[in-house]
Design a protein that fits this description.
Layout (H helix, E strand, L loop, with lengths): L1 H5 L4 E6 L5 H11 L7 E7 L6 H15 L16 H8 L7 E7 L7 H16 L4 E8 L17 E5 L5 H12 L5 E2 L1 H10 L4 H17 L4 E2 L1 H14 L2 H11 L8 H10 L10 H11 L7 H10 L9 E4 L6 E4 L4 H11 L5 H8 L3 H5 L12 H4 L8 H4 L5
Parallel strand pairs: 1-4, 1-5, 2-3, 3-4, 6-7
Antiparallel strand pairs: 8-9
Helix pairs in contact: 4-5, 6-7, 6-8, 8-9, 11-12, 11-14, 12-13
Length: 400
């Protein structure tokens, strides 16, 4: 991303699931990594579903005007209607000795295809004129095509940065970084449970970790233990659970006694997934048979439920990818996944026996400080980076 800022002909597309820290990264990468002699100024605007190109970039010009208020000539923003040419001409006023970043957050919310087309035209125009403004687009998507139309012509313009879910070692480092300046310690079980419950999402590590630590302080203990994690789960469900409950209810609502939607959804939340959050029906079936002892659910029945979860009447709680015969699924909102698991812990669908088996068998691997990762992300060569991940064999939990 810093390489794109240094290059006057490059822009950035930062994408991935919700809850991975895209916005946090966009706010800090240029501050912590700035070793350039040139000063950097940044402005931000959040896209809205009702935006068209003019309304979106009018606000962007206002934000840029405030960020560059001391520069002469100043940027104008009082246009009746904003076009790509107007934005480009305003950006051309900026001094070449300063590097500028214009961030458009939640770009995926834009409904108008014309707005995305005009934004693509703007990026190409800024590239062709070598203007020293880096546009950083942030969106939730599995692939580039979902965010930018006609992306083939933008390959030379865009630096593509896809955030993946974090591995358990990096999630654990988040906890260590917060605890470093305190006398508090995490028990092995508490650490293992927090990072496993988080399902690769840093948001949950910070939320559960903070709440568990606060509970430990209230108990006047310096060791954070499982009972503090339990309190953190209770607190999360109380404060934030309602935002997920409605969609969960729509997805699982049924009057049939034989309905297993609750179990299939929980098994989906617990199933082995890749760094993009995708899991296979066979993994869901395997996990379901572990959760519901004494039953032997077959792949076909489980797949039937997974398909229903992709429908609007089931809150489209899952998204399906791949081709027929090799379908994979993931949660449409990644933050829903840990909520489902925590809900099952609270209502004892996941009892103590199952909880220990699911969350603590991998504790030794987590605590092995000599363990190192070195797996390249699939598109690392294209993206110019290496993302540490866990291979399927390393991550899969033994349920034998």
């Amino acid at each position: 991303m810093m390489g794109a800022v240094r290059d006057p002909a490059k822009h950035i597309l930062l994408y991935g699931e919700r809850g991975l820290g895209k916005t946090s990264l966009s706010n800090t990468f240029w501050q912590s990594s700035n070793t350039l002699r040139n000063p950097i100024l940044a402005a931000r605007v959040q896209a809205d579903a009702s935006d068209n190109f003019s309304s979106l970039w009018s606000r962007a010009l206002v934000e840029f005007q405030q960020a560059t208020i001391h520069y002469n000539p100043s940027i104008s923003s009082d246009f009746e209607r904003v076009t790509p040419d107007i934005v480009r001409r305003e950006f051309q006023k900026l001094p070449p000795r300063v590097l500028f970043i214009m961030t458009i957050d939640e770009f995926d919310l834009l409904r108008e295809q014309k707005t995305r087309e005009l934004t693509a035209n703007l990026l190409k125009s800024l590239h062709d004129h070598a203007i020293n403004v880096t546009v950083l687009l942030i969106g939730i998507a599995d692939n580039v095509e979902e965010l930018i139309i006609n992306h083939q012509s933008l390959r030379r313009v865009l630096s593509l940065v896809k955030l993946e879910r974090m591995n358990i070692f990096d999630l654990s480092k988040i906890l260590d970084s917060r605890l470093r300046s305190t006398p508090l310690k995490l028990s092995d079980d508490a650490r293992s449970e927090i990072v496993t419950l988080s399902r690769g999402l840093p948001y949950y590590v910070q939320s559960l970790g903070k709440s568990a630590i606060q509970n430990s302080v209230r108990r006047q203990h310096t060791l954070v233990e499982i009972e503090d994690v339990n309190a953190a789960i209770e607190n999360f469900l109380l404060e934030s659970g309602q935002s997920f409950s409605d969609d969960y209810q729509r997805a699982t609502d049924s009057r049939q006694a034989s309905n297993i939607s609750h179990g299939v959804l929980l098994a989906s939340a617990l199933a082995h997934a890749d760094t993009g959050g995708f899991f296979k029906p066979s993994d869901v079936c395997e996990m379901l048979n572990l959760i519901v002892l004494g039953n032997n659910y077959h792949h076909a029945r489980v797949h039937q439920y997974l398909s229903k979860f992709t429908l609007d009447r089931r809150a489209r709680i899952l998204i399906r990818g791949g081709a027929k015969g090799g379908y994979r699924y993931r949660f449409s909102d990644a933050l829903m996944q840990p909520f489902i698991v925590m809900r099952a812990i609270k209502d004892t669908t996941i009892d103590d026996r199952l909880r220990h088996r699911l969350f603590h068998l991998g504790r030794g691997q987590l605590l092995d400080r000599g363990y190192r990762l070195g797996v390249a992300e699939a598109n690392a060569t294209q993206l110019g980076m290496v993302v540490p991940t866990i291979t399927e064999g390393q991550a899969r939990m033994s349920i034998a």
